[in-house]
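Lab notebook: predicted structure, single chain.

Context: the supervisor wants predicted structures on file for every construct in the current expression panel, including those that have not yet been purified. This is the next one on the list. No modifications to the sequence; it matches the entry in the shared construct table.
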Amino acid sequence: MRSFSWRLMGKDVKFERPLIVGILNLTPDSFYANSRNTTPKAALERAKNLVNDGADMLDLGAESTRPGSALIDEAEEGRRLFPALEMVRKAFPDLLLSIDTRRANIAEKALAMGGNVINDVSALSDARMASVAAKSGAGFILMHSKKELASGRNEDISTTEVEAFLKEKTAELLKAGLPVDCIVWDPGLGFGKTMEANWRLTEELDKLNAPGGRIMFGASRKRFTRPDPSMPESESNSGLPGTIRANRIAIRKGAFLLRVHDVKEARSLLTEGESYAS
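Prediction complete. Output recorded below exactly as produced.
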């Protein structure tokens, strides 16, 4: 069994299986309607359900980046995020919490309120983000996203291109002083990539030379997992079977974190005999 180590706030945390990251959306417009939580109370109830289903970590995001969504300002992001974060942290004092944000100010305050990890889907678009991460020693999830967020324009991105981009951004974090053991790579499935590129990246996940082999895999219910990608998520066009298929591949290929809406289904894969290659 392959083991991993992740440095979080100055401490080395070791794992011998993929961590299940439950998605906690604090938005009215995320692409998967069943994941939306528009009040702190609703977010807390959702958090409890995710933890009861077996989530090892929660990823709190207050701004939707689905194709066509309208990006919000910093004040609105904070209004959505901070009350929910406070309630979730109080309910789960020891649970790992990541903050899905592109803004350094939001990340800085969220870490002070008990967050452990920054999940930056914009790949350091905020010039202060690297220094905030380095000062805190937080875990840092660095995602490939060359296109403008929510643009909906897709390209046939190769695994080699993704790796080169993430290496370049990793160098920025290291220059700012963040230890390499804090950094996780995310290939950014569904962000500016064709259907074919998303599935190829999934199959070639083990070709990404991420620091310490730390890769977060986030395919959950994204367009390319649906039977008809041109149509919205629905009961008859569910992305869940495709997500399960993708997660099975990702586990075999060495994914360290699985970011999912459906925690029970992801945890069940870990009892099917799926494991890291030794």
